Amino acid sequence: MTWQQTHSRWQALKDIEAAVATDPLAPLPWTDAYADLFGDRAGLVAYLRYRWLLRLAEPAVDDVHREHRARTLARVGLAALDLQEARRAVA
Question: Residue ranges of the domains in the chain?
Answer without folding.
Answer: 3-90
